Protein backbone atom coordinates (compact mmCIF):
# COMPACT_ATOMS: atom_id res chain seq x y z
CA UNK A 1 0.00 0.00 0.00
CA UNK A 2 2.00 2.99 -1.26
CA UNK A 3 -0.73 5.62 -1.77
CA UNK A 4 -0.55 7.84 1.36
CA UNK A 5 -4.29 8.63 1.32
CA UNK A 6 -5.17 4.94 1.10
CA UNK A 7 -2.84 4.28 4.03
CA UNK A 8 -4.41 6.99 6.19
CA UNK A 9 -7.87 5.66 5.34
CA UNK A 10 -6.88 2.06 6.12
CA UNK A 11 -5.52 3.09 9.52
CA UNK A 12 -8.65 5.12 10.30
CA UNK A 13 -10.82 2.14 9.43
CA UNK A 14 -8.58 -0.03 11.61
CA UNK A 15 -9.29 2.10 14.70
CA UNK A 16 -12.97 2.37 13.80
CA UNK A 17 -13.25 -1.43 13.65
CA UNK A 18 -11.58 -1.81 17.04
CA UNK A 19 -14.00 0.72 18.57
CA UNK A 20 -16.93 -1.08 16.97
CA UNK A 21 -15.84 -4.29 18.77
CA UNK A 22 -16.52 -2.54 22.06
CA UNK A 23 -13.16 -1.07 23.05
CA UNK A 24 -13.71 2.27 24.79
CA UNK A 25 -10.56 2.90 26.87
CA UNK A 26 -9.00 6.04 25.38
CA UNK A 27 -5.44 5.13 26.37
CA UNK A 28 -5.78 1.74 24.68
CA UNK A 29 -7.23 3.29 21.52
CA UNK A 30 -4.43 5.88 21.43
CA UNK A 31 -1.81 3.14 21.75
CA UNK A 32 -3.45 1.19 18.92
CA UNK A 33 -3.42 4.35 16.82
CA UNK A 34 0.22 5.11 17.53
CA UNK A 35 1.78 1.65 17.06
CA UNK A 36 1.68 0.71 13.38
CA UNK A 37 0.72 -2.98 13.07
CA UNK A 38 2.33 -3.00 9.62
CA UNK A 39 5.77 -2.93 11.32
CA UNK A 40 5.05 -6.35 12.87
CA UNK A 41 3.78 -8.17 9.78
CA UNK A 42 6.30 -9.21 7.11
CA UNK A 43 6.16 -10.90 3.74
CA UNK A 44 3.04 -11.57 1.71
CA UNK A 45 0.63 -10.68 4.50
CA UNK A 46 2.01 -7.16 5.03
CA UNK A 47 -0.74 -5.59 2.92
CA UNK A 48 -3.35 -7.10 5.22
CA UNK A 49 -1.89 -5.58 8.40
CA UNK A 50 -4.89 -3.27 8.92
CA UNK A 51 -7.51 -6.00 8.65
CA UNK A 52 -9.05 -7.21 11.89
CA UNK A 53 -7.65 -10.70 11.43
CA UNK A 54 -4.94 -12.86 12.92
CA UNK A 55 -2.14 -13.35 10.35
CA UNK A 56 0.64 -15.92 9.99
CA UNK A 57 4.15 -14.99 11.17
CA UNK A 58 7.39 -17.04 11.23
CA UNK A 59 7.77 -20.34 13.14
CA UNK A 60 4.17 -21.36 12.37
CA UNK A 61 2.78 -18.78 14.84
CA UNK A 62 0.31 -15.92 14.45
CA UNK A 63 0.02 -12.24 15.19
CA UNK A 64 -3.27 -11.87 17.08
CA UNK A 65 -6.40 -10.20 15.77
CA UNK A 66 -6.11 -6.45 16.56
CA UNK A 67 -9.52 -6.19 18.24
CA UNK A 68 -8.55 -9.10 20.52
CA UNK A 69 -5.25 -7.37 21.35
CA UNK A 70 -7.23 -4.22 22.23
CA UNK A 71 -9.84 -6.06 24.32
CA UNK A 72 -7.18 -8.02 26.21
CA UNK A 73 -5.19 -4.85 26.84
CA UNK A 74 -8.31 -3.09 28.09
CA UNK A 75 -9.12 -6.03 30.40
CA UNK A 76 -5.60 -5.85 31.85
CA UNK A 77 -6.19 -2.27 33.13
CA UNK A 78 -2.53 -1.28 32.80
CA UNK A 79 -1.35 1.78 34.72
CA UNK A 80 1.63 4.01 33.89
CA UNK A 81 3.71 2.71 36.81
CA UNK A 82 3.08 -0.96 36.09
CA UNK A 83 5.69 -3.64 35.44
CA UNK A 84 4.11 -6.03 32.94
CA UNK A 85 4.98 -9.58 31.90
CA UNK A 86 3.80 -11.03 28.59
CA UNK A 87 4.09 -14.72 27.69
CA UNK A 88 4.22 -15.27 23.91
CA UNK A 89 6.01 -12.37 22.19
CA UNK A 90 5.18 -13.67 18.70
CA UNK A 91 5.49 -10.64 16.40
CA UNK A 92 5.91 -8.26 19.36
CA UNK A 93 2.77 -6.28 18.51
CA UNK A 94 0.95 -6.86 21.82
CA UNK A 95 4.13 -6.03 23.76
CA UNK A 96 4.55 -2.80 21.78
CA UNK A 97 0.97 -1.76 22.62
CA UNK A 98 1.66 -2.50 26.30
CA UNK A 99 4.87 -0.43 26.15
CA UNK A 100 2.71 2.65 25.54
CA UNK A 101 0.71 2.08 28.72
CA UNK A 102 3.15 0.61 31.23
CA UNK A 103 6.43 1.62 32.83
CA UNK A 104 8.24 -1.58 31.81
CA UNK A 105 7.33 -4.62 29.72
CA UNK A 106 9.09 -8.00 29.65
CA UNK A 107 7.92 -10.37 26.92
CA UNK A 108 8.92 -14.03 26.82
CA UNK A 109 9.10 -16.18 23.69
CA UNK A 110 10.21 -19.79 23.16
CA UNK A 111 11.30 -19.19 19.52
CA UNK A 112 14.59 -17.30 19.34
CA UNK A 113 13.89 -16.12 15.79
CA UNK A 114 10.64 -14.44 16.85
CA UNK A 115 12.12 -12.82 19.96
CA UNK A 116 15.03 -11.42 17.95
CA UNK A 117 12.80 -10.09 15.17
CA UNK A 118 10.46 -8.46 17.70
CA UNK A 119 13.36 -6.83 19.55
CA UNK A 120 14.61 -5.37 16.26
CA UNK A 121 11.23 -3.76 15.66
CA UNK A 122 11.12 -2.38 19.24
CA UNK A 123 14.58 -0.86 18.69
CA UNK A 124 13.64 0.56 15.28
CA UNK A 125 10.53 2.20 16.77
CA UNK A 126 12.48 3.53 19.75
CA UNK A 127 10.42 1.54 22.26
CA UNK A 128 13.03 1.35 24.99
CA UNK A 129 10.88 0.09 27.88
CA UNK A 130 10.12 -3.30 26.31
CA UNK A 131 12.40 -6.34 26.13
CA UNK A 132 11.84 -9.66 24.35
CA UNK A 133 13.57 -12.62 25.99
CA UNK A 134 14.05 -16.21 24.80
CA UNK A 135 12.81 -18.60 27.45
CA UNK A 136 9.97 -20.97 28.29
CA UNK A 137 7.49 -18.40 29.56
CA UNK A 138 5.41 -20.85 31.56
CA UNK A 139 7.99 -20.45 34.33
CA UNK A 140 7.66 -16.67 34.25
CA UNK A 141 10.60 -14.51 35.31
CA UNK A 142 11.20 -15.23 39.00
CA UNK A 143 14.17 -12.82 39.24
CA UNK A 144 12.06 -9.84 38.18
CA UNK A 145 8.76 -10.84 39.86
CA UNK A 146 6.37 -9.78 41.26
CA UNK A 147 4.50 -8.24 38.33
CA UNK A 148 1.62 -5.78 38.46
CA UNK A 149 0.12 -7.26 35.33
CA UNK A 150 0.61 -10.55 33.43
CA UNK A 151 -0.81 -11.31 29.99
CA UNK A 152 -0.58 -14.71 28.36
CA UNK A 153 -1.11 -14.76 24.59
CA UNK A 154 -1.02 -18.54 24.12
CA UNK A 155 -3.64 -20.94 25.47
CA UNK A 156 -2.99 -23.11 28.53
CA UNK A 157 -5.27 -25.72 30.06
CA UNK A 158 -5.03 -23.82 33.33
CA UNK A 159 -3.26 -20.61 34.31
CA UNK A 160 0.35 -21.76 34.98
CA UNK A 161 1.12 -21.92 38.73
CA UNK A 162 4.44 -20.03 38.52
CA UNK A 163 2.69 -17.12 36.79
CA UNK A 164 -0.03 -16.96 39.46
CA UNK A 165 2.74 -16.93 42.08
CA UNK A 166 4.53 -14.05 40.31
CA UNK A 167 1.47 -11.78 40.32
CA UNK A 168 1.62 -9.18 43.07
CA UNK A 169 -1.31 -8.86 45.47
CA UNK A 170 -3.82 -6.60 43.75
CA UNK A 171 -2.32 -7.57 40.40
CA UNK A 172 -4.27 -8.71 37.32
CA UNK A 173 -3.58 -11.52 34.87
CA UNK A 174 -5.39 -12.12 31.57
CA UNK A 175 -5.02 -15.61 30.09
CA UNK A 176 -6.84 -17.78 27.52
CA UNK A 177 -7.62 -21.19 28.99
CA UNK A 178 -8.86 -24.38 27.38
CA UNK A 179 -7.84 -27.08 24.91
CA UNK A 180 -5.65 -25.71 22.18
CA UNK A 181 -7.62 -27.03 19.21
CA UNK A 182 -11.00 -25.70 20.31
CA UNK A 183 -12.45 -22.39 21.36
CA UNK A 184 -10.92 -21.19 24.60
CA UNK A 185 -12.15 -18.82 27.28
CA UNK A 186 -10.32 -15.64 28.11
CA UNK A 187 -10.19 -15.26 31.85
CA UNK A 188 -9.12 -12.44 34.15
CA UNK A 189 -7.49 -13.37 37.43
CA UNK A 190 -7.15 -10.84 40.26
CA UNK A 191 -4.85 -11.71 43.13
CA UNK A 192 -6.38 -10.77 46.49
CA UNK A 193 -4.79 -10.95 49.98
CA UNK A 194 -6.53 -14.23 50.58
CA UNK A 195 -6.45 -15.90 47.15
CA UNK A 196 -7.35 -15.52 43.48
CA UNK A 197 -10.58 -14.28 41.94
CA UNK A 198 -11.48 -15.61 38.46
CA UNK A 199 -13.76 -13.98 35.92
CA UNK A 200 -14.68 -15.31 32.45
CA UNK A 201 -14.51 -12.62 29.77
CA UNK A 202 -15.16 -14.07 26.31
CA UNK A 203 -14.41 -16.84 23.84
CA UNK A 204 -11.05 -16.60 22.05
CA UNK A 205 -8.76 -18.76 19.97
CA UNK A 206 -4.99 -18.83 20.49
CA UNK A 207 -2.10 -21.10 19.57
CA UNK A 208 -1.12 -23.39 22.47
CA UNK A 209 1.34 -22.61 25.23
CA UNK A 210 4.08 -25.17 24.57
CA UNK A 211 6.72 -26.33 27.02
CA UNK A 212 10.44 -25.90 26.36
CA UNK A 213 12.31 -23.83 23.79
CA UNK A 214 11.50 -23.84 20.06
CA UNK A 215 13.86 -24.71 17.18
N1 LIG B 1 1.40 -11.75 21.35
C1 LIG B 1 1.77 -12.13 20.00
C2 LIG B 1 0.98 -13.30 19.46
C3 LIG B 1 1.18 -14.53 20.23
S1 LIG B 1 1.18 -16.04 19.35
C4 LIG B 1 1.69 -10.97 19.05
O1 LIG B 1 1.29 -9.86 19.48
O2 LIG B 1 2.07 -11.13 17.90
C5 LIG B 1 1.72 -17.03 20.71
C6 LIG B 1 3.21 -17.05 20.90
O3 LIG B 1 3.46 -17.75 22.11
C7 LIG B 1 3.95 -17.80 19.82
O4 LIG B 1 4.94 -16.98 19.26
C8 LIG B 1 4.56 -18.99 20.55
O5 LIG B 1 5.83 -19.36 20.05
C9 LIG B 1 4.66 -18.47 21.95
N2 LIG B 1 4.73 -19.49 23.01
C10 LIG B 1 4.04 -20.64 23.11
N3 LIG B 1 4.38 -21.31 24.23
C11 LIG B 1 5.33 -20.54 24.85
C12 LIG B 1 6.09 -20.68 26.04
N4 LIG B 1 5.96 -21.75 26.85
N5 LIG B 1 6.95 -19.70 26.37
C13 LIG B 1 7.12 -18.62 25.59
N6 LIG B 1 6.43 -18.43 24.42
C14 LIG B 1 5.54 -19.38 24.07
Walkthrough of the structure:
Helix content is 29%, strand content 26%. The protein has one domain: Vaccinia Virus protein VP39 (Rossmann fold, 3-Layer(aba) Sandwich), CATH 3.40.50. The protein has helices at 4-20, 26-34, 66-76, 93-99, 112-124, 161-165, and strands spanning 55-56, 62-63, 83-87, 104-109, 130-134, 147-152, 167-177, 184-192, 195-204. By secondary structure, it is of the alpha/beta class. It is built from 6 helices and 9 strands; from the N terminus they run H-H-E-E-H-E-H-E-H-E-E-H-E-E-E. Bound molecules: S-adenosyl-L-homocysteine. S-adenosyl-L-homocysteine binds next to strand 2, helix 4 and strand 4.
Helix share bin: 25-40%
Query: Strands of the largest sheet, in order across it?
Result: 5-4-3-6-7-8-9
Number of strand elements:
9
User: What is the string of SSEs from the N terminus onward?
Assistant: HHEEHEHEHEEHEEE
Number of helices: 6
> What structural class results from the helix and strand content?
alpha/beta
CATH superfamily: Vaccinia Virus protein VP39
Largest beta-sheet characterization: 7 strands, mixed
**Gap from first CA to last CA:** 33 Å
- Structural domain count: 1
Shape: globular
Overall mean pLDDT: 95
Named once each, the bound ligands are: S-adenosyl-L-homocysteine
